[in-house]
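Posted in: Protein Modeling Q&A

I'm a second-year student putting together a small comparison for a lab meeting, and my supervisor asked me to include a predicted structure for NDRG4 protein. I've never done this before, so apologies if this is the wrong subforum. The sequence is pasted below exactly as I got it from our records. If anyone can share the structure token output, I'd also love a short note on what stands out.
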Amino acid sequence: GLLLQEMTMAGLHELRFTEEKPLLRGQDAELENSDVFLSTVDTDWKEHDIETPYGLLHVVIRGSPKGNRPAILTYHDVGLNHKLCFNTFFNYEDMQEITKHFVVCHVDAPGQQAGASQFPQGYQYPSMDQLAAMLPSVVQHFGFKYVIGIGVGAGAYVLAKFALIFPDLVEGLVLMNIDPNGKGWIDWAAAKLSGLTSTLPDIVLSHLFSQEELMNNTELVQSYRQQIGSVVNQFNLQLFLNMYNSRRDLDINRPGTVPNAKTLRCPVMLVVGDNAPAEEGVVECNSKLDPTNTTFLKVGCSAQPPLSLQPGKLTEAFKYFLQGMGYTPRLSLCARAVPSASMTRLARSRTASLTSASSVDGTRPRACTHSESTEAMGQINHTMEVSC
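Accepted answer (user: helix_wrangler)
Welcome! Here is the predicted structure, written out as tokens:
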């Protein structure tokens, strides 16, 4: 179940969510074999190759823009693509109940999609800043007003950069296993040495999984090794990995800590697996974000398994995150009430702003931000823990 690790509220306010239907209708899906990564439920996905200032970008999209509602835009991690990273999560039944109200747009980093042509020798792969700067072309191409981003690892870093450079295009972010720090000289040297002694799939696996997971969950790890080695072009993957490893620190600081601090202005949900390689980075990222619009979710599995093995848990978290921005219907708000079971299992994502919630079938004025409701409800420390 979900355990509330920490929750503090000014003004002694407690909130209750009530819904007409249970949040989840079934148990978590289990990863039975490697085919689950590439399974497809929908046939409505359309593929596009979009021209950007830094080359073509492969995008897969379902649906069309719906009024003022944002698109859900995803960006995958190193060693994966949108299918390997997100299929299980987006094919989960309850997630589909959510996404049918939104256009969904999966972005593959250059050359990482299945069947991609190999880049020529000497090709200069886009930097992490340039990868972020490619995304406005996607937004403009499809006529999105703004997006809710879901990124994992390297993809989370790209989406955070995107939100820093183009804040008016980003309505919210779900960042899984983000590491906001660039590699130091010791890390760089270790990566170089590892490249001489390890295969590319093994290097990627050490990025995705903790050492404990690599040792104890051999069947799952072997599934990832097979997919990483066979689905993604290895030359292209090496270029993406090199660029990610040469990233700079994400230039963010908590407001008020340094003069003219830069931070993510939109609501953010940070997600990290227990003992995941990126755990320290995610904790540090949390310390640098505005606590009034940031939720920190710790899942009792490392790295990728929460997406593939725990889609129900993350679907529930994502639903509350959307509720916090006013996009999910049928909510009632009760001050000074005892939290319901579902509220206890999953602490709110930006619950303060629920006072202005409206139906997903309507439109939501973008001017409704967390700042107004925070004044009324007080600051909330959004930390929660999920056990597998």
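A couple of things worth pointing out for your meeting: Residues 45-325 form a domain with the Rossmann fold fold (CATH 3.40.50.1820). The first strand starts at residue 2 and ends at 6.
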